[in-house]
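Practice problem: predict the structure.
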Amino acid sequence: MSETYIAGAGMVRFGKYPVDITFEKLAVGAAREAMSDAGVTTKDIESVYVGHVFGGPVAGQRVAAQMGLGGLPVSNHENYCASGATAIREAWIAIKAGLYDIVLVIGAEKMTDRVSGGVMPDPTDLDAINGLVMAANHGMSARRYMSDHGATREQIAAVAVKNHAHSVHNPFAQYQRPISLQEVLDARTIAEPLGLLDCSPISDGAAAVVLCSAAGLARLVLQP
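Answer:
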């Protein structure tokens, strides 16, 4: 079985985009950056994998068509927060199986057009019926972690402080300012013990990678 390599990667900045910046534009932007980084053209790509939740029906096919990749095998992967990772895993499996040598994997989301407030489970979901929305679930997990490991509220809040400290140096981050521990502790409660600054914001963005087998890298004149 062939080894699998990341030949190129690309992103667009995450944030809240106007309606005219569509899901397709975000995904295509990230994909073109990844292809440029890998030095590949549309003729090199053999298959496309797209992870998304709110992209709508055949989102990957719409993106592929805009990139001139229409007609290639395209698969869509909806696995909530793991959608992009799942798309990468499925592409990796295909390369390991010898199906392809060069594939394009995209993870994209345009939430601001489709989500108001927090992300809600499907109304038929058992958790949703009982009011266990995502934030509440994570709040319960935090409480359990604090109970099992003796973590304090301040230690939980330090995660957000750390993340914002990194964001200052990340040009693709939605927010790029540091926050203090006290700001996190004083923020509006969302699901005890988690507050507003502990929680992920509603966001639009995309990232992409070009995955290759060893044969694919040789074709691109790249070395593993």
